[in-house]
Amino acid sequence: MLKVIVQAVVAGSQVVGRAFTRALQQEWAASQQAAKRQGGGKQGTKSAVADLKKGLTIQEAKQILNVSDLNDVEKIQKNYDHLFAVNEKSKGGSFYLQSKVYRAKERIDEEIQDKMQKERSQTEEEQSPPPKT
């Protein structure tokens, strides 16, 4: 009797262990693919951190504000103003949707700021004279 119970526990543990291992492998593969989509390396890590911090990817933010080009600042602002006003609680709108619109704009602004900062640092590197030895 005890032998059968021990065998059942061992068999159950093996099944759970294999399933857990398989789940970990799948999660690892998914995280690697996500890192590749984000650009990999330091830039991918920075982008992933920004996504986690704001709770939105840049693609989601672009969809929410219905924009495709981050260089069109006027359209981004126009769409933001419209969506924010339409979802005003006093006008029967949704605070949840208004918050999503706000976070999307915030995420896009952060992305634009990062691009500008990157361009500035590249320009400074090009303009600075090489170090004297």
TrEMBL record:
* Residue spans of biased composition, Basic and acidic residues class: 108-123
Membrane topology (UniProt): Peripheral membrane protein
Q: Where found in the cell?
A: Mitochondrion inner membrane
Tell me the GO BP annotations in alphabetical order.
protein import into mitochondrial matrix
Query: Would you tell me the Gene Ontology cellular component terms?
Result: TIM23 mitochondrial import inner membrane translocase complex
Listed A to Z, the keywords are: Membrane, Mitochondrion, Mitochondrion inner membrane, Protein transport, Translocation, Transport
Region annotation (Disordered) ranges: 108-133
Query: What InterPro entries does this protein's entry cite?
Result: J_dom_sf, Tim16
Whether Lipoprotein counts among this entry's keywords is no
Entry similarity comment: Belongs to the TIM16/PAM16 family.
Annotated protein name in UniProt? Mitochondrial import inner membrane translocase subunit Tim16-like
Source organism of the structure: Lingula anatina
Lineage per the UniProt record:
Eukaryota, Metazoa, Spiralia, Lophotrochozoa, Brachiopoda
